[in-house]
User: What shape does this take?
Amino acid sequence: MKLTFENRTALVTGAGRGIGRAIAETLAAAGVTVICVSKSAESCGGVADAINASGGKAKAMAVDVSNGEEIAKASEVLLEEFPNIDILVNNAGITRDGLLFRMSPDDWEDVISTNLSSCFHWCKYLARPMTRARWGRIINIASVSGIMGNAGQANYSAAKAGMIGMTKSLAREFAARGVTVNAVAPGFIKTDMTSEFVNNEEVSAQILGQVPLKRFGESSDIANMTAYLSSQESNYITGQVFTVDGGMAM
Ligand code: NAP
Assistant: This one.
C-alpha cells in the first residue's frame, strides 16, 4: 500500500538522532516537508541537510523542548513560514533513571518537562491551525514503560503514561475537527538511548528474554508505524496506543 500525503508538512521533535531521525527521513521520502527539531542545531541541521541533499524538503530548528517559552516562540516563527503544519510528532525524550530513593527532584522535573510538558506546549500551539484546516495528525511517541511501568523509571513511566492520557483526551477534543491523535509505544529500540543495554551482553540477554520476537527493534520499525498514523489512510483511527515492541507488552 502506498501512503497518501497531499502536500503535507510535519514537525518532528528529537529529529536529530535515533527514532526521530528515522521518522523525519521516512516522512520526507514519502514527499512530506519536514521541520526537524532537536536540542542542538548541529544534530537537527545535519538531518535536514541530508534530507535536502537526497531530494526531499526539510528545515531545521534548534528548540529546547523542556522550555515552554522556547516552544511558543518557535511555533510563532514556524507558523509564519508554514501556516499549515499538518502533522506533529512529539518524539523528543530523555531518561534519568534511578530507583526512587536515589532519584533527585531535578531528575523528575527534567524528564517530565522534556517528555510530557513539551507535548502539551506543542499541541497547544500547533493544533489550532490543524483544527481550522479540518485535518491534522498528532502522534506522541510514548513507551511500553508508560504501560507496564519499569523499576528505576518512575519519572519516565509517569511521563509516558501522561502522554497516553493526553493522547486520549485530545483525541476526544479534536475528533470533530478532523484531527486524529494517537500514541506509539516502542519497546527496546537500538538507539543512543539504549546503547548501554544493547551493548552489554548480559543485560541484553535478560531483556531479550522478555521479547517474543527475540531481537531489539530498529528505529525504522517505529518510523513505519508513525508514517502510517500520519497518512490519509489512518483517518478512522484516533485515541489509540500502538505498541511496537516485538510482543513484549502483550
Ligand atoms: P535518542 O537517540 O536519545 O534521541 C533523542 C532525541 O531527542 C535527540 O535528537 C535529542 O536532541 C532530542 N532531545 C532530547 N532532549 C531534548 C530537548 N530538551 N529539546 C529538544 N530535543 C531534545 O532517543 P531515541 O531512542 O531515538 O528516543 C526517541 C523517543 O522514543 C523518546 O521519546 C524515547 O523516550 C522514546 N522511546 C525510545 C525507546 C528506545 O528503546 N530507544 C523506547 C521507548 C520509547 P539532540 O540530537 O540535539 O541531542
Summary: The two ends are 26 Å apart (CA to CA).
